[in-house]
Amino acid sequence: MSQSSIPVASQRSGGSGNVEEGRVFINGRVAIGSTDDDFVCATLDWWPPDKCDYGTCSWGRASLLNLDLTNKILFNAIKAFSSLKIRMGGTLQDKVIYQRTGDQQPCAQFVKNSSEMFGFSEGCLPMSRWDELNQFFRDAGAVVIFGLNALSGRSIGMDGLATGAWNGSDAESLIQYTVNKGYTIHGWELGNELTGNGVGAGVPADQYASDINTLQSMVQKIYASYEAKPLVIGPGGFFDASWYTEFIDKTLKSLQVVTHHIYNLGPGVDDHLIDKILDPSYLDGGSKPFQDLQSILQNSATSATAWVGEAGGAYNSGHNLVTNAFAFSFWYLDQLGMASSYGNKTYCRQTLIGGNYGLLNTTTFVPNPDYYSALLWHRLMGRNVLSTSFNGTKKIRAYSHCSKQSPGITLLLINLDGNTTLRVQVSTENDGNNRTSTLQSKNQTQRSNFASTREEYHLTAKDGNLHSQTLLLNGKVLTVNSSGSIPPLEPISVSSLDPITVAPFSVVFARFPDSSIPVASQRSGGSGNVEEGSVFINGRVAIGSTDDDFICATLDWWPPDKCDYGTCSWGRASLLNLDLSNKILLNAIKAFSPLKVRMAEPFNNYWAVVIFGLNALSGRTIGLDGLAAGAWNSSDAESLIRYSANKGYTIHGWELGNELTGNGVGAGVPADQYASDINTLQSMVQKIYAGFEVKPLVLGPGGFFDASWYTEFIDKTLKSLQVVTHHIYNLGPGVDDHLIDKILDPSYLDGGSKPFQDLQSILQTSATSATAWVGEAGGAYNSGHNLVTNAFAFSFWYLDQLGMASSYDTKTYCRQTLIGGNYGLLNTTTFVPNPDYYSALLWHRLMGRNVLSTSFYGTRKIRAYAHCSKQSPGITLLLINLDGNTTVQVQVSTENAGNRTSTLQDTDKTQRSNFSRMRRVSKIDASVREEYHLTAKDGDLHSQTLLLNGKVLTINSSRIVPPLEPIRVSSMDPVIVAPFSIVFVRFPNINYPACKYK
């Protein structure tokens, strides 16, 4: 990043002309809308090379049927978005038939025929081409929407009205083939521009609604065994208020996305396109369909959201050197800003390639200016949309969003004036009594160079020519290199003391990374409410203690063809086939130093503490009632244990059996017999390890807690059992669609304390010296639930379980699984850490052995736990906010040995500290604490991407787990817990009797 604080140096375009002043006002108190994370979308069409408009044939080989999928620029252009939505569809989609397996007829291509609707015959999609397209999109990381032929089975009258119901058999065949091949389709859209009178043909709203209901039923049936099903999308037409109102009201339960098309500049042959683009009043007129559709959706009982399904601006393939040149970025970016302001979740540009409006050149594949405009929007403009107004010339268009995956806000400024430079001041309104502040003047008081700069991206045309297809970013030409790679889009760094200088005919993205407006600073949930609360920590005595390596994870035996509810989530994650050479796996375990791993003998060299579960059904007979009768045959286990000892393998513990307590899962063993078998195992361990000073633990029974069964079992193993293990799947089956509701319900979470409490009571009243472990906890049985138990949402349940278990003196907590199923700490396929991995690692590094009594006073949606800090002075507090709409400001109070109660914030008021909220400091002193804020990417509870203090956590190219760095915060301030967030807070200077540290 280059540095610049000289206004004229940041203009990069335009002549001298006039200079005017202006002011942007951004209201940061509440978002006015939100978009999908992959808001930017592009289309691919069906038009063959001989599609011509006004004597110009602009499509070349850009059709879905003939596009060169081996082109490196094309691949890199899509991949640069990570991910780009791609809609496959267009006018001819309603004339496409899909090849079926066993078809004897040749798969004919489109043939030009002026007597046919749209000027072409029907065309056929070969399944070989469908395979190629899906493979390409998967490799490029695209999110795919496919437009189905909605005219199949209908008759088109002389008046253009298409009568009769949709014949979905051809579509059903394609969808079934797609599922069988394992291709991922994000959404199936029915029809193209058949709304109202239609283009070529029209379908009445009530009939179209009936057809959408048919499509939804089809999708539900074909994807019945899939947890995540494709969206059903429609109608993909031009907005007609009465038609859309009827259509939406009759698809309340079947339609998930309402799509509409935009070509509001008129025909591509119009010589006045640039005049329209540069006319603010004309652009303002484009808001009406957005506004009207938003009103319909808000007044309807539907849950459907709005997308722009296709937008080329000028119909009939656009206009060369206008809709594929720099000038069109004014219209396109204005449309993106306007659409997002009215609640549109996705905006699909016509086209990615093809016609005269492609983001890529049809012949060379080289990006046109709008490609870079789209990519900058995608990388800079986050989901939350902010109310933005500009005071000054009407020729400035202004839009702002919370920044994408980073702190602060991003402002977009478009200057439609070719002779005037604008100097723009930026003001924001926060939630502090509606106070208005100017970002420039606000930063004058800050001492940090980081805090005194913003990032700017200035887009201008080569030589100031609006018809140019060459784009300059901060004065430098953007071009792909010889490898077809997209160039880096680097900002300039500008002093925040200066106004933003917007040159004539230019576009500026300005990112303010240090803006503290509420919507941008929360990172999760809406702006919502702000409440206060207090945490009370009793530091006089510990209420429990854990093992130093409290965190544990399991490895299982399930093979790849273990499936639940039609989903096979285990892959090669079994003890028998797991890739032990994977660097991420090695580094993920090593980061704990050590990590307890249950059932994982091969991990002695992985900085793991190993517990192995033995087969407890060996030698038994299982009756029709599921009762396993007879004594355990230990010979096979004895052979394995002796082999392990002879090889010098260090096993921390041998556990007997899995889920055989009570009635068991599959089979059950009576408590007295199980106790006898544990005694046998202990004798065996004592004999085999007779020459060892430290012997492995004997653990059991590894089942679901049953008070009477466990009481008998413990009483009969007083001298042989060292660890009592129990399993937790208290959320029910993984297929349950209400898992997140349970996770976010404090009463439901509270109910999870009973087995901990009851087992603790049994152990305390028994003569045993055994301690309690959670031997396996996946939360939701049958492999969990994809995008819930392996996503951010599950950290609420998991961390709450860790806090609760340790409060009841549980020494170790084993998460099901380290890898495998839909509840792994690591992704089953890529090994990349899921959010709970980092949650576990932070607990392991911050939360010490001694557990402190902790109470929260305020909303029930806050969960609070505290421990003495891990291998360092002080205490660490864990706060979990289950509320997606409330920020909680938490004061922390403690009680010390002298029964004196103090507020940590009040104590620090006497200290001379210059540190402000959320500002990094160079060293820890008595006036600061360390905070670790965990949030989901874009506030999405289903996200598998975790942010720590606003920054994405990801492994690097060397497969190393990233450092987990805190922010240092003034101890005079309350702890700010954003909606749907988790905060670890370490107070390094709090010393209490329960937390002796040497």
Secondary structure elements and their pairing?
Layout: E1 2-4, E2 18-27, E3 33-34, E4 40-44, H1 72-79, E5 85-88, E6 96-98, E7 123-125, H2 127-140, E8 143-148, E9 155-156, E10 162-163, H3 169-180, E11 187-190, H4 205-222, E12 231-238, H5 241-249, E13 257-262, E14 266-267, H6 273-277, H7 280-285, H8 287-298, E15 305-311, E16 314-315, H9 327-341, E17 344-349, H10 369-380, E18 381-391, E19 396-403, E20 409-415, E21 420-429, E22 436-438, H11 439-442, E23 453-461, E24 471-473, E25 476-477, E26 492-495, E27 500-502, E28 506-512, H12 518-522, E29 529-545, E30 551-554, H13 583-590, E31 595-598, E32 608-614, E33 621-622, E34 628-629, H14 635-646, E35 653-656, H15 671-688, E36 697-704, H16 707-715, E37 723-728, E38 732-733, H17 739-743, H18 746-751, H19 753-765, E39 771-777, E40 780-781, H20 793-807, E41 810-815, H21 835-846, E42 847-857, E43 862-869, E44 875-881, E45 886-895, E46 901-903, H22 904-907, E47 928-936, E48 946-948, E49 951-952, E50 967-970, E51 975-977, E52 981-987
Parallel strand pairs: 1-26, 2-21, 4-5, 4-17, 5-8, 6-7, 8-11, 11-12, 12-13, 13-15, 14-16, 15-17, 29-45, 30-31, 30-41, 31-32, 32-35, 35-36, 36-37, 37-39, 38-40, 39-41
Antiparallel strand pairs: 2-18, 3-18, 9-10, 18-19, 19-20, 20-28, 21-22, 21-27, 23-24, 23-26, 23-28, 24-25, 29-42, 33-34, 42-43, 43-44, 44-52, 45-46, 45-51, 47-48, 47-50, 47-52, 48-49
Organism: Vitis vinifera
Main location: membrane
GO molecular function: beta-glucuronidase activity
